[in-house]
Amino acid sequence: MNNGSPGQSPAPQSPHGHVPNAQSFASNHSAIETTAVYDPDAPKYFFQEKYAPLNVKGNFLTLCACPKNVELGEWLAHQIVEQNRLLQAMLKVIQEVNSHTGLPICNETSCPTMSAGRLTYTWLVDSQAAKISAPKFINRVEKWIVSKIHDPVMFPTEKVTGVPDTFALSEATGASAADAAANAGGEDWIGKSSGFPRTFYKDCQGIMKQMFRCYAHLYHAHWLNPFWHINKHDILNMCFVHFVTVAKYYKLVSDKEMEPMQPLIDLFIKQQRIPPEALNGGHWGQQSSS
Ligand SMILES: [Zn+2]
């Protein structure tokens, strides 16, 4: 069993006791910590209530619930852009190059794989699942999400009046003739009236899944260094709680996918930081009950 090295771990008696050490830490940490290799068995302090502060009053339900006069597709697009903005700010913390070492905290040596605990995420390279380094993986996710958000087919910026031309759309999205035929049958989908493609909701799920993986890596590999050390672990929690509220309320990330972060999610549910209304696809639950 690895109980962690005492010098780098939060003091069990006083979670904030470690923060004053930031001075001694600042002088050593850049050189030491950017070369520390990720240990999947390191203690998971972030799953413990005493290390999981949250400087938010109430919860994120009002920010997440779709206003009555807004079409759901438009609203989900807005939520995705906002979640991406929050995640980017957190990723920046592990990506900034340290002037002493010339390396970011998350680098090829510290994180040779995109891991969250014992779980390693793979990336498809030439249709083969490949274990690429976390910085490469995260970089690809970021570029992929940005390309989706800026894709006028996936995220149309101009509101389309009426129903989009399904055949032109299927050409643009590479959808099959069968899909086009299904669309022509008058089927409805989320975002249809706002001009979003048939795949829009699935695309949102794909984006949120990759975002979740980034959060899982941020916690499992970088909660202690740097978030705890620079006292930004509460901001990380705030972004993550917001993310999970949106993910659960609109069923954008499956429970199975969220398993690597389950203890913390359970804790936030218990504290009602993730409100009960958001659970089990609350958006649709409320609609069917009203
Ligand atoms: Zn990393």
Automatic annotation (TrEMBL):
Signal peptide: none annotated. GO terms for molecular function: protein kinase activator activity. SUPFAM superfamilies: Mob1/phocein. The keyword Zinc applies. One of its GO terms (cellular component) is nucleus. Residues 1-23 are annotated as: Disordered. Keywords: Metal-binding, Zinc. Zn(2+) binds at C106, C111, H217, H222. PANTHER family: MPS ONE BINDER KINASE ACTIVATOR-LIKE MOB. Residues 1-15 have a biased composition (Low complexity). This is Mob1/phocein. Coiled coil: none annotated. GO terms for biological process: cell division; signal transduction.
